[in-house]
Design goal:
250 residues; alpha+beta; Porin; 18% helix; elongated
Length: 250
Amino acid sequence: MLKNMKKILIVVIIYFAISTHINAQEYDQVGLVSRFGISAGVFPVWVFPDLGPINNEISKMGLNNLSSSVFTLGGGGYAYIMLIDNLRLGGLGFGGSTSEKKIVNGFHKEVEYSYGIGGLTVEYTLPINISRFAISVGAIIGAGSAEIDIYQNKSNLPWDVVWNDVQQQGKTTDNINRKLKNSFFTFAPTLNVDIAITRFMAIRLGGGYIYTLNRDWKVDNDIDLKGVPSGLNSDTFFIQTGLLFGFFTF
């Protein structure tokens, strides 16, 4: 399903990019004013990473599967640079997590998956004559990370036991805390629709696909993690909504 959604998104972006040149020529002929605006806002974002390899392991711990979607929250904004008609630059960042936990055989077990990115946004607003609407194609260029935190412990853990685990050789307790992390640079093509409710407020609906440039994972204090399943990567489709405040002329 995600592969099909990615293909559809790419086709739509290519279509709009090709039609932009034709639309721009038509608008030059009738002398319409280019878009202008500046904004900042809050962005709820849903990402859909493939968590199958993780769920295969946590089921062996007695935990339920992690959700197939991860709700994240972020913020950002943009401004039309005016040097190039309809081109706007800005920034966007978002992050969130999903987790499962349960008491199994007297142990508190939990697995948490976190995901977040941030970066520069570059967008071109298509010159279409629809009042209060701005349809933009562009990309996010930045960096992010995916993190898996694994816990197993008992309540009321004594201070000395915490230190005994690392001061003595060999296993001293059944308490476990593991942190797995994939840090990456990213390029994410996007398609967004902004709808101006008033001259100073707009709502957004859009999406894109996050391509990551690093598949390596680290564990704990940046130790290389070997044998990671090939299906576990941080590429993902995402759906973006938002509430923007600023000044809009579209």
